[in-house]
Amino acid sequence: MGRTYFVEEAVGQYLSDLGTKVKPYVTGLLIGQCSPQRDYVIRAVRTPPKEEQKESNIGPSNLASLDEEWITTHASQVVSRMLPGGLLVLGVFIIVTPELSKDSQNALRKLIFSVEKSLTKRRLWKPAEEEVSDRAALQICSSTKKVVCRTYDVQDPKSSAKPADWKYQSALSASWLVLGCTINVNIHIPLLATSLNHDLEKNTKNGLNRWSKQIEDSVFLINGQVRDNETELLEGQKKSRGNTQSSTQLSDVKVLAQLSQGSSCRSTATVQVCSGSINLRGSVKCRAYVHNNKPKVKEAVQALKRDIINTLSDRCEILFEDLIINEGPHKKNFEREYHVLPQRLFVPLAGSSVMLSDYKFGDETTGEIQERFVEMLDQSVQAEDIHIAEEINTGKYCVQE
Q1: Which residues, other chains included, contact 166 with Cβ-Cβ below 8 Å and sequence gap of 6+?
Q2: What is the mean pLDDT of residues 371-380?
Q3: What is the pTM of this model?
Q4: E strand spans, 230-273
Q5: Do residues 319 and 339 make contact, with C-beta atoms less than 8 angstroms apart?
Q6: Is 70 exceeded by the pLDDT of residue 228?
Q7: What family does this chain come from, according to its entry (predicted)?
Q8: Cα angle: 356, vertex 362, 368; to 5 degrees
């Protein structure tokens, strides 16, 4: 039996509108959440057109010219900047003219595995054994509007297509549950003397990798309580009739890091010659969203853990990209430098309790943020809807000799 995708009605309208605008085909991402029983699609986002396509509004003439690298880069940027905990790329879609329908499934299969490979490279966490690894390949005919949904298991390179149900539903994410926390960060990362030119990006990633394991092993208090992983997140909470606000309230989470891993996880101390260090200090805001169909505590905690790990890793990655753009890739003088990590902000998704995220540096304007949402998520954002989550000096990246 195949998987079932419950899809926000607005997604159907978006895909229908998209099919009338771009010819002969358009590709994009499906964004939502997996659960053991079913998957939820709350957003579809087309692949941004390249500069030469923006004026003509005409895409490549055939599927052989499909730009796989451009599509996977878009997916990586959406995941690293725009998606809070709990949301992921559930698959890809293609809207094609009848003449190209025959070849589109092969193109979709190739894209699904390419996107997943790109996203896996940058993760600092490993998927759980029981985690859903099926991803959707959605094909829509621009003339007949016929929808064909299949899935592929991205953990199996030889996976064959399985049929899946695609069902539209109104107000799908209107009352999702949200968990939030503030994490105080103080990470010290040594720079080995043997590290060529202080390979900052590599050293930072190694340090964050060690830190991410501490987050994975931490104890999470939900509204002040330790909850059993297998219990329902809403267990013991009363819903008032006719009021969905009670189910969308933010649950406050505290993260308690373990001071000791116990005798079974002893490690041997080593002495290494270092020529400097990196210090990551500050407070970061983290947030995760969970569907409201009897979610378990472990689903919510897992989503929040990943947001904590991702948000710090993503900020460092964005900072490095900014340094390369502004100071060049060969800059070697990093003596006692301080850099402010980008702030996090949240923007509401229309008709939903879910908010999408982004990051901004202090000198970025509201207009630049709005442009990025249009380019990355094909979404217009009003200035008053941009909610800055943190103070400007909450995250600092310090390199010192």
Answers
A1: 5, 7, 138, 147, 149
A2: 96
A3: 0.90
A4: 250-256
A5: yes
A6: yes
A7: Belongs to the ODR-4 family.
A8: 55
